[in-house]
Amino acid sequence: MIDFIQQLIGGVALGCVYGLIALGFVLIYKATEVVNFGQGEIMMLGAFLSYTFIVMLGLDYWIGFLLCVIAMAIIGSLMERVVIRPILGYPQFSVVMATIGLG
User: Fold this and answer.
1) For the CA atoms of the chain, what is the radius of gyration?
2) What does pTM read for this prediction?
3) Which end of the chain is more exposed for a tag (fewer CB within 10 A), N or C?
4) Band of residue 74 on the pLDDT scale cut at 50, 70, 90
5) Of 99, 76, 79, nearest to 29 (Cα)?
């Protein structure tokens, strides 16, 4: 019975993660009308930055979290200004290829 409960909780947790990823795709598409296939890599960059700030540099959790949010906001803004915005008038395929290239 314990194994069943563990599997159930693990499955619900994994389903929640998949749901959050899908919501991220939908939110980005509805806001910008761009299919962003570099989303997972950008999320992993944020995870590595937070790991670097908190574990490797030994910063407090909330300070590392705040620095990670600020750094990812800057990186995301730069990627949008440098890569996405200049090609928005082109066909959808080129925008999709650019987001894959970001990954």
Assistant:
1) 17
2) 0.72
3) N
4) very high
5) 99
Residue 102 corresponds to which tokens in the numbers above?
């970001």
Q: Of 25, 70, 15, which Cα lies nearest the Cα of 46?
A: 70
As given in the structure block, the two tokens for residue 78 are: 């730069």
Other C-beta atoms lying within 10 Å of the C-beta of residue 95: 20
* pLDDT tens per residue, range 3-45: 999 999 999 999 998 998 889 889 888 887 777 888 888 888 9
Q: List Cα–Cα distances, 78 to 6, 14, 50, 82, 86, in angstroms.
A: 42, 31, 19, 6, 12
Q: What is d(CA 85, CA 43) in angstroms, rounded to the nearest whole number?
A: 20
Six-digit token pair at 3? 């194994």
Q: pLDDT band for position 54 (50/70/90)?
A: very high
